[in-house]
Design goal:
This protein has 177 residues and is mainly alpha-helical. The chain folds into 2 domains: 1-91, Rna Polymerase Sigma Factor, Chain: A (Orthogonal Bundle); 110-177, Arc Repressor Mutant, subunit A. It has 8 helices and no strands. The longest helix has 24 residues, at 15-38.
């Protein structure tokens, strides 16, 4: 179902039909965004359900200032960031239980697979990580990323540029070792 039709359903207060259309159209995208922020499949599935529950409850209060998809992504982002903060508070372990990460052996040290890229992305500052995730994984435009993160488009471009440079440097450094 197209976004214009979904918006029309919301305006006509056909919330159930609109919700079903939104769920069908955006469920996978919401899951991918949740997974990119959480890096845990089970947690991303759980949060995707939470997001759509929150969305269902909030749908009658939709005011039209943002597109439905932008609003849904903002709910997703905020839900995941809150969950990360909550999880971080719950996940405290004594220092003597923490082990150093073991380097992964690779036949070709210059080879970089998707898990390596995400490992490098995880090292980026939070603002750059969010911009990279929305721009590349969710394929949002610069304007949409700015709206979702509440930052000017120029700032989005700056974070994107810095993130690309940092990723290129990290990947080159990995290939040199």
């Amino acid at each position: 179902m197209e976004d214009d039709r979904l918006l029309e359903l919301v305006r006509n207060r056909s919330y159930l039909e609109a919700f079903e259309g939104l769920l069908d159209r955006y469920q996978n995208r919401v899951y991918r965004l949740a997974f990119s922020l959480m890096r845990d499949r089970a947690r991303a599935e759980e949060l995707t359900q939470d997001v759509f529950l929150k969305f269902w409850r909030a749908l009658p209060r939709y005011d039209g200032r943002a597109s439905l998809s932008t609003w849904l992504y903002a709910i997703t982002r905020n839900t995941c960031l809150s969950a990360r903060r909550y999880d971080a508070l719950r996940r405290t372990r004594p220092l003597d239980e923490v082990r150093e990460p073991v380097a992964r052996a690779s036949e070709d040290p210059a080879a970089t697979d998707a898990s390596d890229v995400w490992r490098f992305v995880d090292r980026l500052p939070e603002s750059q990580r969010r911009v990279i995730t929305l721009f590349y994984l969710e394929e949002c435009s610069l304007r949409e990323v700015g709206r979702l993160l509440d930052m000017p488009e120029g700032t989005v471009k700056s974070h994107l540029h810095r993130a690309r440079l940092a990723l290129a440097h990290a990947m080159n450094a990995q290939g040199a070792h």
